[in-house]
Structure formats: structure tokens, C-alpha cells
Design goal:
alpha/beta; Rossmann fold; Arc Repressor Mutant, subunit A; 2 domains; five-stranded parallel beta sheet; four-stranded antiparallel beta sheet; 21% strand; elongated
């Protein structure tokens, strides 16, 4: 089973934060909460969530400033940010988007529409987590049916190897460190030794070459692994 996508919800109104938490968890997301801008910045950098719901008006540090700082950092730049704000003027929406927000919703908002927008953003950055089909070269991964094919032939892989392959196929040619793979595949709440990665990559390689063909996974000495 694919690791739950993590959503950092930054909201100082506890009632709204609870509504967001309830609906996100009901839809299968892991939720982190931050009540102010400073904590939001720290949690985003420490946890590297898959998506951030960010209120504009926050204590200590505004949502606009949090967004600006996160988009300026290499490690957090690619995290989708949906800004939530009571500011309905077009100039405010433009400002939010120009600061780096990937989407902007005006309060009060429809929870159903918000969840749809969350999935739209994740479809772009973590397609396997929302059941998308991934293809690269002669590989095809069907996240909804949990099946893997190479050159049209189905391949049997274990659940951990499936998550590894999904991670590789979401960003082909990206070099993943062992620590990044541990976080993405196992999650930060579970302690796993980094050498465990090598064991599972070995199993994945064996499975992918069961019908022949070249090894699609590249070992990058001193760095980690990459697909293609």
C-alpha cells in the first residue's frame, strides 16, 4: 500500500483546522497541524509534507511570508501550496499566486472543492498516491490496481518494492538518496536502517528483469539510486 500523502494544514482558527483535519484524514491523508506561521515554516522544513494548506492571516508570520520562504528553499520549493484566505479581491489572489502559491481558495470554501484541488495538486507531484497510472520506457505501474508491467508482461513485486518503483517512476532520472527513499517509502515515523534500501532495491531489480531486459535502476556512487 502506498504511503499516505502528508498534508500540513496551517490554520490558527481551531474550528476550521479541525474540519480540515477530519476531512483530510477521512480521505486517507496523514495530517500535520500548525497554528502559526513560524511553526508552519519549521514543520514544513522538518517534515517535507506532500502538500500544504496555508492560511494567509496567521500569528507570528503571515502565510504570504511562509509561502515566499518555502518557495525560496531548494528542499521545499516543489511542495504544492494551496493558500486559503478571506481576501477575495483579485489583487490579493494575484499576489498570493505571484508569491509562489500553486492554488488559491477564498473563505468560506467548499470542502468538496478543496479536496478536489488537493488531489489535483497531488496528481501533479505524487500521481501514484491518487491512483494514477505511471509509464516510463517499457515500464507501466497501475497504482489503482496495484500491478506492474514491463514490456506488456505483468511482474510480481512486493508492497515495499511497489512503493519504491512508484517513487522512481513519479520522477524518472531524479537521483534519490537512501534517506529520501526511506522518508518517501517508509515514512518518518518508522525507524528503518538505510542499508535496508539496498536490499529492497536489489529485490526490485530482480523482479524487473525476470523476463529479461536491461536493469532500469541506476546506482549513483556516493549518492543513491535513479530510474533511467
Amino acid at each position: 500500500m502506498q504511503r499516505q500523502p502528508t498534508v500540513l494544514t496551517v490554520e490558527d482558527e481551531s474550528a476550521i483546522a479541525e474540519v480540515l483535519r477530519y476531512n483530510l484524514e477521512a480521505d486517507g491523508f496523514r495530517v500535520l497541524l500548525a497554528p502559526d506561521g513560524e511553526e508552519a515554516l519549521l514543520r514544513a522544513i522538518e517534515e517535507l509534507p506532500d502538500l500544504i494548506l496555508l492560511d494567509w492571516m496567521l500569528p507570528k508570520l503571515s502565510g504570504i511570508e511562509v509561502c515566499r520562504r518555502l518557495k525560496a528553499r531548494n528542499e521545499t520549493r516543489a511542495i504544492p501550496i494551496i493558500m486559503l484566505s478571506a481576501r477575495a479581491d483579485e489583487v490579493d489572489k494575484v499576489r498570493g499566486l505571484e508569491t509562489g502559491a500553486d492554488d488559491y481558495m477564498v473563505k468560506p470554501f467548499s470542502v468538496v472543492e478543496l479536496m478536489a484541488r488537493v488531489r489535483t495538486q497531488l496528481r501533479r507531484t505524487r500521481p501514484a498516491s491518487v491512483g494514477e497510472r505511471l509509464e516510463y520506457d517499457d515500464l507501466m505501474l497501475d497504482a489503482e490496481e496495484h500491478r506492474v508491467y514491463r514490456d506488456g508482461k505483468q511482474i510480481s513485486v512486493g508492497p515495499t518494492e511497489f512503493r519504491l518503483l512508484a517513487t522512481f517512476m513519479e520522477k524518472p532520472k531524479r537521483v534519490w538518496t537512501r534517506e529520501q527513499l526511506l522518508d518517501r517509502v517508509w515514512g518518518r515515523d518508522l525507524y528503518v536502517e538505510t542499508r535496508t534500501i539496498d536490499v529492497h532495491v536489489g529485490r526490485l531489480r530482480k523482479a524487473l528483469m525476470v523476463h529479461g531486459g536491461e536493469d532500469p535502476i541506476r546506482t549513483v556512487r556516493g549518492a543513491g539510486y535513479s530510474l533511467g
